[in-house]
Specification:
By secondary structure, the protein is of the alpha/beta class. The protein has 3 domains: 90 residues, SRP54, nucleotide-binding domain (Four Helix Bundle (Hemerythrin (Met), subunit A), Up-down Bundle), CATH 1.20.120.140; 182 residues, P-loop containing nucleotide triphosphate hydrolases (Rossmann fold), CATH 3.40.50.300; 136 residues, Signal recognition particle, SRP54 subunit, M-domain (434 Repressor (Amino-terminal Domain), Orthogonal Bundle). Helix content is 58%, strand content 9%. Helix 1 packs antiparallel against helix 2 and helix 13 runs antiparallel to helix 21. The chain binds guanosine-5'-diphosphate. Keywords: Cytoplasm, GTP-binding, Hydrolase, Nucleotide-binding, Ribonucleoprotein, RNA-binding, Signal recognition particle.
Length: 444
Amino acid sequence: MLGNLGRSLTDAMKKMAGMAVIDKKAVKEIVKDIQRALIQGDVNIKLVFELSKKIEDRALNEKPDKGVTASKHVITIVYEEMVNLVGKEAHPLEITGKPYKIMFLGLQGSGKTTTIGKLARYLQKKGFNPAIVSTDTWRPAAYEQLKQLTEELHISLYGDPENKDAVDLAKKGLEKFKNQKIIIFDTAGRHKDEQDLFDEMKELSSVVNPNEAILVIDGTIGQQAHDQAKAFAKTTDVGSIIVTKLDGSAKGGGALSTVAEIGAPIKFIGTGEKIDNFEVFDPSRFISRLLGMGDIQTLIEKAEEAVDEDVAEETMKHMMSGKFTIKDMENQFQMMGKMGPMKQIMNMIPGLGGKLPKEASKMTEDKINQYKIIISSMKEEEKLNPKIIKHSRIHRIAKGSGRKPEEVKDLLKYYKGTKKAMKGLGKRGLGGGQMGRLMGQFMK
Ligand code: GDP
């Protein structure tokens, strides 16, 4: 849905979920990504800048609640501000009064007739039996389209292709269906000129006196939706909006955000040509899906669950200072087991992706498991001071873990290589403290 907008935003969120430090630079980078995505999605530039400013201000000034990671904090801010952008709360359609008169408005081609069918079906599923009145005297096919649709759905329709008086049709329809619970009025989407169309809407609106006027807007027109909605709002008190064609439309984000500004809530969205391609619009659910929150939540949870922060920091400190022991290596394996392969984890940390010591990147899960078993047969003093592991100890450990002495030697070799590489990494710019902090933050 919404073309690439969802993908770009999800990518930005994923990038942030993987960031170890969320400083000013990181926030600015994320805000840039979001801006780029929204502008490409035809969201009004003014709205984009207002949104970015809010996100930036909040991300830099609001302190996360205790126990909430910096990345989760910023993701939540982005989510909240995006929800505000498309209308804050869900406004479900409520049928009050009888007959409940719904008048549809919208330009020809916006998807009005299709959407009437979708809403009728939706109401049917809720146990209502709506009737439809066709007042579109300009498009001959409109009546036929509705006739076919209502026959399929077994819904009553009133219309008369011979009658060219929309107001008269509305009056007769109203009379015919006065005992129905819900009456839906279809109206023209085109006239000889626009002003005539708007005049007719005004007149129809005073005759029908709708409980709810629903404006249908084509989502593919992007931010132009704003002017269109405003023009219709002058003729009738628009109570709600349905944005159509959001399936794959690159400009849908623009339509949604600009329409939300009008003040009438978006109640439904159209997501395809079929009768069931219709959804109740709930800003929180919609944005959470758009941002890929499900995936990101998992990523964050994975990092949160992973390890005891103190153990992580201590391990990293040892790694960097050259005091790295087999005990630390065991902790490291534990972290890997919980968070996924080391290479993948390191890739999520900006600036570290390519710098993983060769020994660590070659590790496979099988190998890690094998090493864990061997280490479990070591004594504490051996883990803390691996230098003492010589010939007889190697044989004892091998026997205890059901492994060959060569495999124990292999582990010791891996340990020494990692220790050396980690020490080098610490010296090469990424200081131990910085690296420890990175890992510590990431594993919070
Ligand atoms: P009307 O002139 O406003 O009554 O528009 P129609 O209902 O005849 O729809 C115009 C075109 O838009 C038709 O080809 C519909 O199938 C298509 N359409 C309507 N809603 C959607 C939608 O949500 N997604 C897509 N992809 N097409 C839609």
